[in-house]
Amino acid sequence: MFFVALYIHIFRGMFFGSYKAPREILWIPGVVIFILTMATAFMGYVLPQGQMSFWGATVITNIFSAIPVVGESLLQLLRGGFAVGNPTLNRFFSLHYLLPFIIAAVVVLHIWALHVPGNNNPIGVEVKDQRDTVPFHPYYTMKDAFAMVLFMIPFAWFVFFAPDISGHPDNYIMANSQVTPTHIVPEWYLLPFYTILRAIDFNVLFINSQLGGVIAMGLSMLALLVVPWLDTSKVRSGTFRPMFKWFYALFVLDFIATAYLGAQEAAEPYTTLAKVCTGYYFLHFFVILPVLSRIRNRQTAADQHFRERSRQGTFVKGGAGSMLTFKTIIAAVAIAVGMAAAPAFAAEGTAPPVHKESWSFAGIFGTYDQNQLQRGFQVFHEVCANCHSARLLAFRNLSEEGGPGFTEGRVKALALEYEVADPTAEGGVRPAVAADRWPSPFATDQDARDANGGVVPPDFSVLAKARGIKDAFPRWITNYFTGYSEGGPDYIHALLNGYHDEAPEGFRAARGQVL
To answer: Using CA atoms, how far apart are residues 187 and 52, in angstroms rounded to an integer?
Structure first.
């Protein structure tokens, strides 16, 4: 939600020319805040020991290895070794804690820079007299309070009802350096820049593709910093720049498309589209804005508009320019929804359908049946635990609220049935206690492979969260807003019971296998 507000603030500033003189020093700290916030969020995302966090850290830190001469040294200094490990987490945890204080300091600088020239306005014309302004209270305090309430409503919904709705299922799988995910996806706020990094997969003269991707990603952020000197038009607001409006709309669509492509696999047609979107991103900043600045100067028209409104005694916010901006936003959202729905349309009919079951815990008001939880645990204890681990589950969790509701005495008796490794105990093992985690049935992963045909049985701790299904359009939209998060249970149910009532023609199941 914070990044949504950041992106809206940035794009609004770009349309109304809030970066133009005399507010360059206001714009630059704002971009620095944006970059520092992305760095802080990324370092927080790396801390959970999941597959996406681990491989995201591996990919992003590898960026530093592309820097000539000092790249490898910087990489080892950042990681604390030759690969991502505990030293890396220690460093990232420290930076994740310290960077917000730096952000707070830059925010103070940003606010100070705002008070020197004053804030911009949608008209884009500097006020001539104090009488052209309104008091901060009650006008802006009430406006900001209303905006804060609107912000907190979806924020509270995410926090209380869908805290992991945007999380990738693979991040619920414990990090494994030996298994690379088929598709590494960073968090959504990093996707546009991840696309630019990944789009450069070709060499340019003596610059290889890895260094070229790093340079392109760095330039994409540098373009935001230097945009006050790239757009030299004397007309500040995009409201009075007809040609600028259309190119700005294309840039918004391009940015949304770039974010979407970053979440897709590195295959055609996505790789070609990523190159096209990356090309237009740089074209907008380094070619279109400088050229548009020299085509026409409409400052006199803006001044005339300002004087006419002043003479009438009214400052009507909006007008044709705002309506066009509103239409642009609607068009951008519509195209983004269409792009997101395209893969779902393509996949529909090719992937086997997964039937949605009627779970008692479905939806934001769903509840767990305690009897069902106890029966489920009995099945796991007597059957599943012979092969599958539950490393994230502690014995004491069985007596906590929301679980099967076992008594503490039963939990202690259950724990005494097992032994856990303890280097300080005699013989290296001791009886388990309630605080211990559920022991694996195998001493090592290799023992598990030897006993199960070369495959390690999946851990049961977050099995449902680590699985999921993709619905076809438009159901995935309703799922997003209704808090539907039962895709994992649906997937597992379908997997255990089979997708089809009858086997396809020509299909033969091997001994011990079912469809």
So the answer is: 10
Tokens standing for residue 381: 């204890």
- Helices 2-15 and 24-46: crossing angle in degrees, nearest 10, is 160
| Helix/strand/coil for 419 | strand
Cα separation, 29 vs 41, whole angstroms: 18
What secondary structure does DSSP assign to 96-147, as a single string?
Answer: HHHHHHHHHHHHHHHHHHHHTT----TT----SSGGGS--IIIIIHHHHHHH
Three-state DSSP state, 481:
helix
Taking only the tens place, the pLDDT of each residue in 477-511 is 666 555 456 677 887 887 777 655 566 677 676 66
* Structural tokens at position 235: 């007309």
Residue 351 in 3-state DSSP? strand
Q: Decide if 506 contacts 369 (C-beta within 8 A).
A: no
Q: How far apart are CA 495 and CA 332, in angstroms?
A: 38
CB 380 within 8 A of CB 390: yes
The whole-angstrom separation of Cα 203 and Cα 67 is: 15
On whether the CB atoms of residues 17 and 124 are closer than 8 A, the answer is yes
Rounded Cα distance between 101 and 94, Å, is 12
Look up residue 314 and give its two tokens. 């009214």
Q: Taking a C-beta distance cutoff of 8 angstroms, is the pair 62, 197 a contact?
A: no
User: Which single residue is written with the structure tokens 């023992």?
Assistant: 447
- The secondary structure of 433-476 as a DSSP string is -TTSBPPPSSSSHHHHHHHTTT-PPPPSTTTTTT----PPTTHH
Q: Within 10 Å of residue 473's Cβ, how many Cβ atoms?
A: 15
- For residue 380, give the 3-state DSSP assignment: helix
Q: How far are the Cα atoms of 54, 448, 507 from residue 67, in angstroms, in the given order?
A: 22, 42, 53
Kindly report, residue by residue over 205-231, the tens digit of the pLDDT: 889 999 999 999 999 999 999 999 999
Side-chain-side CA neighbours of 458 within 13 Å: the count stands at 12
Strand, helix or coil at 204? strand
Alpha-carbon distance 154 to 176, whole Å? 34
**Among the listed residues 472, 453, 463, 454, the one whose alpha carbon sits nearest the alpha carbon of residue 490:** 463
Burial 90-101 (b: 16+ CB within 10 A, else e): ebbeebbeebee
pLDDT at 123 over 70: yes
Residue 251 half-sphere exposure, CB side, CA atoms within 13 Å?
Answer: 21
Does the structure show a pLDDT above 50 at 340?
Answer: no
The whole-angstrom separation of Cα 344 and Cα 476 is: 9
Residue 505, φ and ψ in degrees, nearest 5:
-60, 130
Closest CA to 16 of 253, 329, 325, 330: 325
Amino acid letter at 63? Answer: I
514 neighbors 508 (Cβ within 8 angstroms): no
List, for residues 232-281, the tens digit of each pLDDT value.
998 889 988 888 999 999 999 999 999 999 989 888 999 999 999 999 99
- Let me know how long the chain is: 515
